[in-house]
Design a protein that fits this description.
The chain has helices spanning 10-25, 29-45, 47-54, 60-73, 78-89, 96-110, 126-140, 171-183, and strands at 114-120, 144-150, 158-162, 165-168. By secondary structure, it is of the alpha+beta class. It comes from Rhodospira trueperi.
Length: 186
């Protein structure tokens, strides 16, 4: 799956905006957001699922059946089911991760939330994520949504990007700084 810190395509933004508008009309924004989060978690956990949605060999019909089975599994709202069916029929299922991310960003902006992109060596627990969001809220004064990503190469610590600010408190960067100072550079 693409890195969550990468830009989202224009196609994904258009689909996400349309989905948000439909969800608002149906008064199902929170349900759709929960459905998309569940799908995002499934995609993060399953290489097979990521290959399935990205497969150009699968027919649109097979993509549709597969994604609707997943929607059934998570008991998705009707708006979400219809959206996923449309995406599969249009042959755009490979762009679904970007659509989910674009929807989440759009929703956060509409709610006045800021999004912090957090990279850690191991997945954050729900408690750690909530604690980090609360601390960031104290700093910026707005609600903060956490988009987390795992990079085992960090060894420990975390990298937090919030707007134009970045704090790199990873063990990897600390070791790099130590190495440079021992060489007399920097």
């Amino acid at each position: 799956m693409a890195s969550e810190t990468t830009r989202v395509s224009g196609l994904a933004v258009r689909y996400a905006t349309a989905l948000h508008d439909l969800a608002e009309e149906s008064k199902a924004v929170d349900a759709v957001a929960a459905d998309l989060k569940a799908l995002q978690d499934m995609l993060a956990d399953s290489e097979d699922l990521r290959r399935f949605i990205a497969s150009p060999v699968m027919s649109r019909g097979d993509h549709g059946k597969g994604i609707l089975a997943l929607a059934e599994r998570i008991d998705a709202a009707p708006v979400t089911r219809n959206f996923l069916g449309l995406v599969a029929r249009k042959g755009r299922l490979s762009a679904l991760p970007g659509m989910i991310l674009a929807f989440q960003r759009h929703l956060a902006r509409r709610r006045g939330e800021m999004t912090a992109r957090v990279i850690t060596a191991r997945p954050l627990t729900d408690t750690q994520s909530a604690s980090l969001a609360a601390r960031l809220k104290q700093v910026v004064g707005n609600e903060v949504a956490i988009e987390s990503q795992v990079d085992p190469g960090l060894l420990g610590g975390m990298v937090v990007r919030l707007g134009s600010r970045m704090v790199d408190n990873s063990l990897r960067s600390r070791l790099q700084r130590l190495s440079l100072s021992m060489k007399g550079v920097g």
